Amino acid sequence: MPNIKSAIKRVTVTEKKTAANKTQKSAMRTAVKKAKASVANGENVAEAVKTAQKTLDKAAQKGHISKKAASRTKSRLAKAANKVAE
pTM here? Predict the structure, then answer.
């Protein structure tokens, strides 16, 4: 544990930011899993995919994942959803 006041503050701030980032990243993963499950079941596909795409965009905007990874995942979800819709 650091002794200097500013270093102590940095540790606490980093812990708070890490917790917030983990929460947001977990929510993103959950939304993607729910979208994949709804595509597999064929229920509420459009709504689940839309929600997942929104959370992926937010995650990419905040830097939790890269923009290309978000785009790739969104594309795969849309492709699967379109396959179910046919």
Answer: 0.85
